TrEMBL record:
Species this chain originates from: Streptomyces cirratus
Transmembrane segments: 73-92, 99-116, 128-146, 167-185
Name this protein carries in UniProt: Oxidoreductase
Keywords noted in UniProt: Membrane, Signal, Transmembrane, Transmembrane helix
Domain Oxidoreductase molybdopterin-binding: 245-398
InterPro entries linked: Ig_E-set, OxRdtase_Mopterin-bd_dom, OxRdtase_Mopterin-bd_sf
Region forming the signal peptide: 1-27
Superkingdom of the source species: Bacteria
Transmembrane helix found in the keyword field: yes
A family per Pfam: Oxidored_molyb
Amino acid sequence: MSSFRSTLSRAALGALAGLLAGFTALAVAEPVAGLVRPAAGPVTVVGGAVIDRTPAPVKDFAIRTFGENDKTVLQLGILGVLVLIAGALGILALHHRRTGAAGVLLFGIIGTAAALSRPDSQGIGDALPSLAGAAAGALTLYILAGKAARPAPTSGGQAAGAWNRRGFLIAAVFTAAGAASAGVLGRRLAGRQGQGAVASRTALTLPAPASPAPPVPAGAQLEVPGVSPFTTPNPDFYRVDTALVVPKVNAGSWRLRIHGKGVGRPRTYTLQDLLGRPLIERDITLTCVSNEVGGPYIGNARWLGVPLGDLLREAGVRPPSTGGKADQLVARSVDGMTLGSPVEDVMDGRDAMLAVGMNGEPLPFDHGFPVRMLVPGLYGYVSACKWITDIELTTFDAYDPYWVKRKWARRAPVKTQSRIDTPKPFARPGPGTVTVAGVAWAQRRGITRVEVRIDDGPWQDADLAAQDTVDTWRQWTYRWNPTTGGHTITVRATDGTGAVQTEERTRTIPDGASGRHSVFVTVP
Ligand SMILES: Nc1nc2c(c(=O)[nH]1)N[C@H]1C(S)=C(S)[C@@H](COP(=O)(O)O)O[C@H]1N2
Ligand SMILES: [Mo]
């Protein structure tokens, strides 16, 4: 019994040694990443590598299940796995110090491989955080396992175990304290890297648009509680991207290069170059292809930016319809994301832009500061490159961007859709008339009609709010006098081409969900 207990407590010591070693590894890797590049930290690169390799259905599931917390869940998952492995290596190290320490080093190699495999890898420097962390972790484990395992000096019949337990404890406390301070230092350094970018955003004053957006029509915003506000405030605007660390780009050193097939005059622009040009201001509704029927990944904002078609024409680009050789525009971000849009769409006169402003302020970092691309009518993953730094003209045959490599469609215009915002699913609306309301969208085509159906009843016209533009969503409302009991409310929209939103349910992959949104409510 007592030998079982001592085995158990020694195993616990081993596991603790392993955890401290893991903690030390991360705490050393952090400041090194802070110095080299915050996005090269081991958890970030491993997380990014996992995202890159996650099959689309699983990624879809993660977005659906964890929503915008998907990245936090991923990072916690990685930390959880690390804790388990570190503990196991610690126990192993009690009897096999070298093997245990080598196991920690192996993680440095995994981290290095992940770092170098990332699309935004800046080369061998990105290996430093993982390697330095693993070396520190391995050394820590080697020392602590020695303290935990070494037999006590049995001079003069002293109680065995007293010396090595104290030695272990002292070493453990020093390790924990040292690792904690290294971790704090790491956060400081990583924070400092972003400070210049933050200052450059604060200092930025956006010029007035040469072509302002007319005020949003008074009737575009219904006075109905629970309906999505016509203009989505920036803090509420959905965020979908693969960045585990939001890129903090300094506006002063930011550059955009335009080059590739058919670009007669390749050029590199600074932010000042762009701000010196005539800017347009437009209301545009942005939608994510991963948005389920009834889902939240859609928002509408007033954007300020440089017309992209003009910029391309200046560079000598011609659309395919007038003989241009390039049919795909590939936008690349500072974090290595690639998105491909049809050149024809970008140059057909719609308000495709390089946006610098969102709802009256410089782009928030989360939404692509200093410059992002927008093409009305296309899902975000084929158009809305955030933190953009490079535009290459090429062909759909020659290059598949990030999501296309992962089985999403090459071309993805936004599908006509509608959503019930109120009442909420399973609500129990009070007595009397129920105001049903929501939004409908069909960017580039506009919404001309919205209908509501109760249970299997006839389709009834909803009242439409005023239309802002064909590129924005449109609110609608329906006054419903229900009978008591459970009811299913379903909505469908008709777009400017006269096409009625299809009933056919499809998944989000490969080119966006179709089908109709319904909500079940119980009227008491
Ligand atoms: N650099 C970069 N740009 C990106 C993405 C990304 O992962 N990285 N995601 C795209 C997708 S899928 C969408 S839907 C939109 C979302 O923009 P938002 O986060 O500003 O709403 O950005 C697009 N631009
Ligand atoms: Mo998206």
